[in-house]
Amino acid sequence: MRIYLTGGSGFVGSNLAHVFAHEHGAELIAPAHEHVELTDELMVRRSVLATRPDAIVHAAIWNDPAGLRSDRRRAWEAYVTATRNVTVAGNAVDAHVVLISTDWVFDGTQGPAAETEPPNPINTYGFLKACSELIVHQIAARGTVARIAGVQGVHRARPSAPRAQDAGFGYLVVSLVQALRAGRRFTLWDGPGLNRMATPTLATDAAELVWRALERVLTGTLHCCGGEHSDRIGLARRAVEVFELDGDLLDVGPPPADVRAGEPVPADTRLDAAATARSLGVELPALGTMLHRLRGEVESSWSLACPA
Questions:
Q1: 68: domain CATH number?
Q2: Domain that holds residue 102
Q3: CA separation for the pair 74, 153 (Å, rounded)
Q4: 45-82: b or e for each residue (b if 16 or more CB lie within 10 Å)?
Q5: Which of 44, 75, 248, 268 has the most CB atoms less than 10 A away?
Q6: What is the DSSP letter of 118?
Q7: Looking at the whole model, is its pTM more than 0.90?
Q8: Which residue in 209, 297, 207, 303 sits closest to 14, CA to CA?
Q9: Of 17, 26, 118, which Cα lies nearest the Cα of 60?
Q10: pLDDT tens string 97-138
């Protein structure tokens, strides 16, 4: 299978690339931003026509929460216009278009949200992703929205995640593990104004589910997430247990004031993925299983970075 992947240098994208190419032998086309500007319709079309992929997996985002609020035109272009461009280009070569979306399209009051639950975003990021989902549903000849949630994992394109912690769950476990293994204290944020309940997902597990959807040519909305919900504290404590860390180094406290000064954050973004699991013919992993897999990935990546 030939896959055109956008955002391949990002956290989620680098894990998609790893699973597609290294685990399944896909022919991967992952142009860098400086080579293909996704907001340029003609450039995207030329790139896709030149490579003629079987599928396009669109994972590229502008990962700057403050920037999304301050430069709305650029934000719209980076999300909605880019999604439209890759979808139209995908139609031109009869490619299966998959949009990587998010649990933050929900408002935090409906969890666990099923695949058929209507989006109701309460911040700019969720709004832009919900608009992008609509583009795929309405325009793509063969289109899939793959929502992921609370993504954990190693960044396979660079040594660290964009931030050690934010208002969501993303990359939280690896940041915690890095601190505690180095003997440093780690203050886990908790309290109002944060995403406090979610469905933590290993990035490579999500990528495997997307791959399975491509193989089965499944369209519509899928929840490519883990099989067990958790709150922030529960996830952190389970990680301490699985990674055999010193729990006395783990603190819990409120986030810095500037984290809460932004837009609203959905408190409960748990996803119900029962329909997705049935469609893909899989059993979604429990939290402990996911964390044990993550430990294996972390230790493998660190051993490669620091060879004996």
A1: 3.40.50.720
A2: 2-305
A3: 28
A4: bebbeebebbbbbbbbbbbebeebeeeeeebbbbbbbb
A5: 44
A6: P
A7: yes
A8: 207
A9: 17
A10: 999 999 999 999 987 999 999 999 999 999 999 999 999 999
